[in-house]
Amino acid sequence: MSEALINWFMVTLGGKVGKEFILFLISMVPILELRGGLLAAGPAFLNVELAKAVPICVIGNLVPIPFILLLITKIFDWMKGTKRLKPMVEKLEKKAMSKSDKIEKYEFWGLVLFVGIPLPGTGAWTGSLIAALLGIRFRKAFPAVVIGVCLAAFIMSVISYGIIGGIFG
């Protein structure tokens, strides 16, 4: 699914905007986030220089995070007040909280690792949602997410530019 979304961005926006803007947008989108951005940036897809791609993807991934940490619980509370949106919000909350045990137990470092280790269902969006639902304060959650995104950037750079780049580059 991630590869299909990356391809959609490249086909839809390719030639209309620069590669860097495509990476920035991919990195902002839930599910894809920085991981998808750095995969798209690598030699197998857009072939953007690593030193240029990493900061673009990190910043793109971090742009939505303060809004999630500060506003998502208020938005969810409002959405739960509507008949149509309540089931969707409850499903999202349930799914996010099903992954919350390590974050709840280890808080800061649990959040860093949850965001930083590139596994399905992890990342800055989900980590921030869980942190907000657990009531972790912004001044503790945001730095943990930033460190996690930087860890993910390192890991994904090795995968995208080292391993995949070695095969396709």
From TrEMBL:
The keyword Isomerase does not apply. This is Small multi-drug export protein. The keyword Transmembrane helix applies. InterPro entries: Sm_multidrug_ex (IPR009577). Keywords: Membrane, Transmembrane, Transmembrane helix. The chain crosses the membrane at residues 21-41, 53-76, 108-136, 142-168. It holds the Pfam family Sm_multidrug_ex.
